[in-house]
Amino acid sequence: MTATQSTLDYDVVIIGAGISGIGAAHYLRAEHPEKTFAILESRDAIGGTWDLFRYPGIRSDSDLYTFGYEFKPWTDPQSIADAPRILDYLHGAVADDNLADKITFHRRVLAADWSDDTQAWTLTVAQTDKGSRAKPATITTRWIFSGTGYYNYEQGYAPTFPGEDTFAGQVIHPQHWPEDLDYRGKRVVIVGSGATAVTLMPAMAPDTEHITMLQRTPSYIIPVPREDPLAKTAMRVLGEDRGFQVNRKRSILQQKAIYEFCQRFPQAARKALRKINAMQLPKDFDVETHFNPPYDPWDQRLCVVPDGDMYKEISKGQASIVTGKIKTFDATGIELEDGSHLDADIIITATGLNLQLFGGMELTVNGTAVDVPSTIVYRGAMLSGVPNFLTAIGYTNSSWTLKIGLLCEWFCRVLSHMDKNGYASVRPVAPKVMDTRPLLDFDAGYVKRSIHLLPKQGDVDPWKTTMAVSHDVKNLRKGAVDDGFLRYEKVIAPAGTSS
């Protein structure tokens, strides 16, 4: 049977109703209103990360002028925004494009199989409603847009610590924050030093007896204003739309300048960051121990602290940082290898994420499983040998959404090219000989733990996954959509029929 427009359920199925999936739906609405599409969301609400995580103080670590969409100005005074404001913004985006009826909640894509015969995907979709006994259904679609991010929503990274079962208090992972957790007047220890830990410490500190961030390895931390005075001035003088565009361009250039300075002059950047930290902390604070990572700046992502909130709680004596290695948990807290002890009523294991691509669904092409680690990513968007499948992975050195927007623009341009020429599918074909390297050239623990599960990138365009906005503007927004590496195909008519 031949898959034609009339026999397919959809032109595009978007998986995930987070910031990537909602963005993709906007671009389809704007650039290809004739296309049919659906958004399948495994949870019961939109927002992805911003609805899943419920721990105190959760916020962005990128400014919203770049983390927000180019097509929807961010007008809230907070530049580094908390999760409720981001969710309000995303709900506004859904309303602006009338997307509510396009989203089906409690639907998890378990598997997707591509058929060359039909030039289409067949998805196996399960209902995730609590108590549902419905059998998985099948959906056919020409394209899949995977907006699932790259970590496991079901389970965060939770290493087992010696003696953990002897601890008399509560052990909490931020990805599974209890709604009824009462930490007022309690002694709290946060295990970790990344973005989650530096968010939790100042948010919880005022209500605790004392809170300690226990880090094995320090992170680079930089203060930023929660409300950017220059951005507010631009919005007031130029108006919301023009002010937003100015703020967005300035933020892109600022992010680029900081990243390139750190990469070109790591020792100078290290020295500057330590000096900034020292200026914010008490004079006797041991900056050399607690704010001096063994790696160079931007080998891992910089952690931002809005309005220096973490420094303020340390200066008040309400919070502290301890750098050391855990020997064991015990009934009353944590014993360190140096013999010291951290008393605790609650221990929060801010130990990171588990990577997971495509929401964990299984991909097959003509019945053969796709070996994802052996594939090579084309333009940061498609997998070699896999037709009509786009995965949305944003920048690691800048705002995630900057890359997603450019990927969506490229996707729409490809769709236009296919419609014009009568093509049904396209797949990247990698050169037989090409040097490869890990997809995410990033030193973060959650990446290193799972790098063997990820596809590769090449060492030259268009197989090199760039982290530069200017490069991607040239290649994704303006570059050719038929560059010799893409194999376009039409639907093959059955024998005895006209094409």
TrEMBL record:
Q: Which UniProt keywords apply?
A: FAD, Flavoprotein, Monooxygenase, Oxidoreductase
What does this protein need as cofactor? FAD
The UniProt entry, under InterPro entries, shows: FAD-binding_MO (IPR051820), FAD/NAD-bd_sf (IPR036188), Flavin_mOase-like (IPR020946)
The name under which this protein is listed is NAD(P)/FAD-dependent oxidoreductase
Q: Pfam families recorded for this chain? A: FMO-like
Domain of life of the native organism? Bacteria
- By its UniProt entry, which PANTHER family does this protein fall under? MONOOXYGENASE, PUTATIVE (AFU_ORTHOLOGUE AFUA_8G02570)-RELATED (PTHR43872:SF1)
Give the UniProt family note.
Answer: Belongs to the FAD-binding monooxygenase family.
| SUPFAM superfamilies xrefs | FAD/NAD(P)-binding domain (SSF51905)
